[in-house]
Structures are given as structure tokens and as C-alpha cells.
TrEMBL record:
Protein name, per record: enoyl-CoA hydratase
Record's signal peptide: none
Domain of life: Bacteria
GO biological process, one term: fatty acid beta-oxidation
């Protein structure tokens, strides 16, 4: 039985939900779990009908508690090196999805679980969320992008505070610091994330994909280089059929029927 479930939502065309579905282990990331999520992101990336993705959890009290330390206790150094390749493929697959990805976080999102959320473009948490990167407390460091993505989100000093102390944040503090983009009532993270994804999916697929590409590629570039990246993305969008349909729909006062090409 798979530990990652892929849901298509007929009421929200273009929205695909990737569900972390290992509730008996609070979605602790085993080698097989990581392999399945990497495969799921590869399938989504290759599907042009997907316009937005939600990453959610079926576990009642957790989003994901990080690496499966019970499995880690059974593998030697060679096994850990082999697992590292699988984990990197999982995080990279999620981070490099060409469409916007929204994390729906409730309960514990710790270590690799928080790094999964950080690999998404937007993070929705509910009031039950507890977030942290506790890796230094067990003799490792955040290795799923945490040292880089958290620093980019929060800045050096706030990221250093959280990583060096391994402390956990409740939902209110996480939202205040900017670790989450939206804070909702307990139990509402998934529906709020799906609603947000549906809003995104209703817009031009070409425009949204190219906007994400420009933002991702230009984020760390010098301004002049970033503006060139933006210009290339603008040209790829402005001369597409989506742009023509968007302008026509605006003038005809109707909803666009995006070609998405």
C-alpha cells in the first residue's frame, strides 16, 4: 500500500493534492516514503493539466515529524549515503515543481517535515501547528534545504536562532515570524490550502508557471540579471495564446478559457 496518495479535485480543475499518507508513523519519512513522494512529484511535473498542487497530510495530529529515526537506527553509513540520494530527489522534486505548491500544515511539522513545507511556495498552517528544525539535537543538521530555505524566508538571524537552538514554534509565533503565509482555525488548513490552490489554478497556466520561474530563478540573482530573467518570462507569456485569450475575455466580460499552451 502506498504512503503517498494523489487526489484530483473535479470541483477545482487543475488542482492536484499530494497526501502524505503514513498516519501510523505520523508521516515519518522512510526511504520508501521518500521514494514514493519523489515519484509523485515527477508525475505531477510531467502533467500539463496540473495548475496548482497542495501538499497535505492524512495523519490526525501531524503534518510530518521528519525522518524516520527508527529506520535510521537500523542502517549503516553506506545505507545512509544511499538514503541521502533518495531524500534529495524527494526534496528537489517538490522544490522544482513548475506550478505553485501550497503546504497545508496541521500538528507537528518537524525536521524534514518542516523542510517539505519550506519546499512549497506558500504555507498554510492551522492553530494546532508546531514547527521546528530539531536536527542539531540529534547530531545532524537540516539537510532537506532547511539551512537555505529557512534563511531565505526569515533572514539569517531568525533562521540561526531556530536552527541552532532546535526550538519549536507554535502557530502564532510561526505566523508572526513569516514562517507561514496564512494562519487559519484548527482543522481548516487543508480546505484553506485547497481554496488557495483553486484560486491560483483559475488564472493563466502559462502566466502562473512563468511568474514562478522568474521569481525562483531571479531570487538570488543581481537585479540586472533578475530583470533579464523576468523579461524572458514576460516574452514567453505575452506572445502565448493565453495572453490573447485573457485580453479577449476581459473585453468580452467573460471568464477566460485558457489554452494553457
Amino acid at each position: 500500500m502506498g504512503s503517498v496518495t494523489v487526489n484530483r479535485h473535479d470541483d477545482a480543475p487543475g488542482v492536484t493534492e499530494l497526501v502524505l499518507d503514513r498516519p501510523e508513523a505520523h508521516n515519518a519519512i522512510s526511504t520508501d516514503h521518500a521514494r514514493q513522494l519523489a515519484a509523485a512529484t515527477a508525475d505531477v511535473a510531467a502533467d500539463p493539466s496540473v495548475r496548482a498542487v497542495v501538499l497535505s497530510s492524512s495523519a490526525p495530529r501531524s503534518f510530518c515529524v521528519g525522518a524516520d529515526l527508527k529506520e535510521r537506527n537500523t542502517i549503516d553509513d553506506d545505507g545512509l549515503r544511499a538514503q541521502r540520494l533518495v531524500f534529495r530527489a524527494m526534496f528537489t522534486g517538490l522544490l522544482e515543481l513548475p506550478v505553485p505548491v501550497v503546504a497545508a500544515v496541521h500538528g507537528h511539522a518537524l525536521g524534514g517535515g518542516l523542510e517539505l513545507a519550506l519546499s512549497c511556495d506558500l504555507v498554510v498552517i492551522d492553530e494546532t501547528a508546531v514547527l521546528g528544525l530539531p536536527e542539531v539535537s540529534v547530531g545532524v543538521i537540516p539537510g532537506g534545504g532547511g539551512t537555505q530555505l529557512l534563511t531565505r524566508r526569515l533572514g539569517w538571524s531568525r533562521a540561526a536562532d531556530l536552527i541552532f537552538t532546535a526550538r519549536r514554534l507554535d502557530a502564532a509565533e510561526a505566523y508572526r515570524l513569516g514562517l507561514a503565509d496564512r494562519l487559519v482555525d484548527a482543522g481548516a488548513a487543508r480546505p484553506a490550502a485547497l481554496e488557495l490552490a483553486a484560486t491560483i489554478a483559475a488564472h493563466s497556466p502559462v502566466g502562473v508557471r512563468n511568474a514562478k520561474r522568474a521569481m525562483r530563478q531571479g531570487f538570488d540573482a543581481p537585479l540586472a540579471a533578475g530583470l533579464d530573467i523576468e523579461d524572458a518570462a514576460w516574452r514567453a507569456t505575452a506572445f502565448s495564446r493565453d495572453r490573447k485569450e485573457g485580453v479577449a475575455a476581459f473585453n468580452e466580460k467573460r471568464r477566460p478559457d485558457w489554452p494553457g499552451e
